[in-house]
Design goal:
289 residues; mainly alpha; two-stranded antiparallel sheet; 9 helices; MetalloPept_cat_dom_sf; metallopeptidase activity
């Protein structure tokens, strides 16, 4: 909860949430929703099943059953007793100094995948949490939202190479790549004569996230719907290498729809704050992704 509160107050999210779309509205509100329990009195329950009890735990750290307020934390969500290389450590397992969390680069990716990050990720999958974040972003707290919750980008196919999925990258890298793909795609679609370019981008691309949920909500104002019309641009693109695209497809998921975008943004900001003024300050620009 401390991580969520800090992130909400700072409102920093551009490493993983695309600010040129209206995704940036939802980012701080997702953490506000977590702090306010989705605006409900429903208890969010965490269970820790064994692999024998939940076979899905063989291939995942944690999961939420759709439509419930229950998080299942698999054994792999926690440190393995006696393991030489530990990961998924709780935040209070080490001090925030050079002997603990605040180490010098090069950073190890798994060193920063904490239990707290896993829980934050799963919280955004809970419908009541995601729904309230959306209501706050639309400034309509009582709006009836039929269904919306975050998804996982690593389950989806690469839009520029259908033979691959985002799952070929580490979960952290996949989320950063998703953000970078959106930035490149938006820049590609910006009219060459637009002044300034970002204004045109916002007008066209703000529909991306809200349009995806508008069809699932009742009572959204006409003005919002009018802003959420498709620009009609064709999606016929060529497959390209990462970072060397001449034409790009639209990514399969918005950054505000990706659960891990929130978890990563919050954790990086938290480490930056906790290691500030220490011998080794945490620099997310030096992460290996």
């Amino acid at each position: 909860m401390k991580v969520s509160e800090y992130y909400y107050k700072q409102k920093m999210y551009t490493d993983y949430i695309v600010p040129e779309r209206e995704d940036s509205k939802v980012a701080p509100n997702m953490f506000k929703s977590i702090l306010k329990n989705g605006g409900t009195t429903t208890r969010i329950i965490a269970e820790c099943p064994t692999v024998e009890q939940e076979q899905i735990c063989k291939t995942t750290y944690a999961f939420v059953v759709h439509g419930t307020a229950k998080i299942y934390l698999c054994p792999s969500s926690f440190p393995i007793p006696g393991a030489k290389k530990q990961r998924h450590l709780p935040l209070d397992s080490k001090p925030f100094d050079s002997s603990g969390w605040c180490t010098a680069p090069p950073y190890q990716i798994d060193s920063f995948v904490t239990t707290a990050e896993i829980v934050l990720h799963e919280m955004t999958h809970i419908v009541s949490i995601a729904r309230y974040a959306l209501q706050l972003s639309l400034d309509r707290p009582g709006l009836e939202i039929v269904w919306w919750q975050t998804k996982d980008i690593y389950d989806l196919h690469d839009e520029n190479d259908p033979t691959n999925t985002y799952g070929r990258w580490h979960i952290n890298q996949a989320s950063r790549n998703l953000r970078n793909r959106w930035v490149a795609y938006i820049a590609q679609r910006a009219p060459a004569t637009a002044e300034p370019a970002n204004t045109a981008v916002v007008t066209n691309e703000k529909s991306g996230f809200f349009n995806s949920v508008a069809s699932k909500a009742k009572g959204i104002t006409q003005s919002l719907n009018s802003k959420s019309k498709s620009t009609g641009n064709a999606k016929k693109r060529t497959a390209v290498d990462e970072g060397h695209a001449s034409e790009l497809n639209e990514p399969p998921l918005g950054t505000a729809d990706n659960a891990h975008s929130y978890a990563l943004a919050a954790m990086e900001l938290f480490f930056m704050d906790m290691c500030k003024g220490k011998k080794h300050a945490f620099d997310p620009n030096k992460l290996p992704y």
